[in-house]
Amino acid sequence: MASSSLDRNIPVDPIDTPFGVFLWGGREKFDRRRDIHQELSSNPIFSKTAVVLPSIARKDAWTRAAYQARELIRLKLERGWSHTHFREAIRMTDNMLPTQPQRFRIFMSNLDRQMSDEQKAIWIPKAERFEIFGSYAQTELGHGSNVRDLETTATFDKQTDEFVIDSPTLSSTKYWIGTTGVWATHSIVVAKLLIDGKNYGNHLFLTQIRELDTQRLMPGVEIYELGPKAFQGMLGTDNGAQRFHNVRIPRSQMLARNAQVLRDGTYIEPKNQKHSYGSMVTVRAIMAEITGWDLLKAVAVCYHYTRYRKQFRKDKSQQIETTVIDYASVKQRLIPLLAKGTALVLVGQNVTRGYDEYTAKNLKTGDFSQLEDFHLQTVGAKVYSTEITSHGVETCRIACGGHGYHALSGFGRMYANTANALTYEGDNYVIGQQVPRAILKHYKNKTEGSLPSLSYLTTIRQGESPTPTIDSETDWLKPEIQQWALEKRLANMVQAHIEDTAAGKDTSYTCHALTMAHSDFVYWRGFRDLLQPLQHEKSAFLDQITALFQVFSLSILHNPHHPSMAQALPLSYTQQRSLRAAHDAAVEDLATNHLAGIIEAYGFTSYEMDSALARADRTPYEALFEEGAKNSEMSGDKMKHLFEMMVDTRQLWKRIEAAKAHKGDMQAKL
């Protein structure tokens, strides 16, 4: 076992290399990952092999997750972990806890960015000590992405100086609210503010939903846990259905940094409406990066398994079977996903870092000038990253053949925990319409200069750019050729969108393709910008990053996300052939010269991958046989209580035939 695991290079602990530190986002982030890994992998409560989650009841899985959440809280308080450290520790447990990182961050973010200084002095210490457990209640049964038409109301009662929170209809039920079904004690409730019958739009209200001493529901609060989710995903996240029946809260619990209601009912409107972007930008900024890690983890599992597995022979003269990863049918699927995952992570890190720096510097002073651009960046990133990741995880499963379908491969869990991102925080086909809407608005107004993510519109406005000379496949490796192709495709799609909109067509479907094309260019540009300083300093891992960049660039051109994107880039047959040749050569170069080094630099450990196909101490066959077959809850004598029934079932035919014969004899006598 030891020799086979060493041959497969699956690390037990994170490996510290300059390339790995770069990929993981820098020294501080890498060290934090290493510390968390050591803490969790050595703590029995966080063992990923002691319990086979797919084999236990959902209630038991959640109970286990709740105790893990408690242990993480203890560690955070004892070790003095930062919020970032805490969130990343949750992520290493596969996001399966009631203290889901997105929910924790969005709750804390709203306390910090939407509360007045006086409110923050009261509530932030309580939240940081976990004296209260928080959730964010926006989505309703009847309205998800359409926040404007949410129905929950918060009516100001001047006599008592209170807000009355109410769910007037079934469709106003807050639904899919994370960490709420069992866990949360307080919710930041998004509700329409009503004063003297006038609707002032949605505002945020901190509402206690459970008693702190008993965990029982507060009077007037009705909450249910939602039950199983598709593919048995998100087992530890207790999404809840939440209704309010005239629940009263003090006026002081309306989050009041931007808008206030005075004692006499006077409404003080916010100075800038853009502050409302903040909540969704926060969670989508997280998604921009973490979805890339989800994809890369699936790629790593697929790599380790297909590098182990042998099947058939490419050449009849071969004495042994061919390693599966050497087939083009595997490489052409896996290598582009590695490049795309890297782009999602590296560019996503910059989006998250940029948003955090911007908010830390400017939001305290009330400067919201760039918030619209971050909103646009994160909407595009959310759509782009979740589309690529969910489909990519499933592609990795399929590339592993039949064994990829086993629950212990981990792909089922990975897919269940990534496919949901296509719809949570907004259905991609719905929220993706915000990008084309912004493109249209700023293109018409000639204001794209105010949003860095739309700066390419200036190039498009300048008119038809000359078609560059593309004589061979090597021309496609030039960034200027790639930029021309991406901009040309995007320009044609923007023009088509303008014409369709002017003609009154329903563009809700075609918007998705335009959003993906926009994001292709944004991520390509972001990846290129990251590459340039490495070129100047002649980085030791420049060749690997360049290979990843080329595969990413050529794959988004050669294999677009929508057929309409290919139609929007009119290439001659010769150009198409040279693009395909360039793409295939880039994939082959990365697979042959750089793949092992890149996987080693990412260095996903056996604990992080949590897959029977990628164990450090045993081969995939040993793990599948020992952990899967021999350890199954239905193997051996564990089902012996049914043995007698099965034996009896095999005798049914005798009794049925005897009964028929008897019936025949009786009829004959008659």
Explain this structure.
The chain is α+β, with helices and mostly antiparallel strands. Mean pLDDT is 90; it is low at 1-7. α3 (27-41) packs across α5 and α9 (328-362) crosses α16 (510-536). It folds into three domains: 133-276, Butyryl-CoA Dehydrogenase, subunit A, domain 2 (Beta Barrel), CATH 2.40.110; 279-602, Butyryl-CoA Dehydrogenase, subunit A, domain 3, CATH 1.20.140.10; 637-669. The strands form three sheets. Strands 1, 2, 3, 5, 6 and 9 form a six-stranded mixed beta sheet that branches. Strands 4-8-7 form a three-stranded antiparallel beta sheet, with no helix packed on it. It is built from 24 helices and eleven strands. A hairpin with a 4-residue loop joins β2 and β3.
Number of strands: 11
Q: Which class best fits the helix and strand makeup? A: alpha+beta
* Cα gyration radius (Å): 28 Å
Name of the CATH architecture of the largest domain: Up-down Bundle
Estimate the strand proportion.
5-15%
Query: What is the CATH fold-level name of the largest domain?
Result: Butyryl-CoA Dehydrogenase, subunit A, domain 3
State mean pLDDT (0 to 100 scale): 90
> What is the 3D shape?
globular
The low-confidence parts are: 1-7
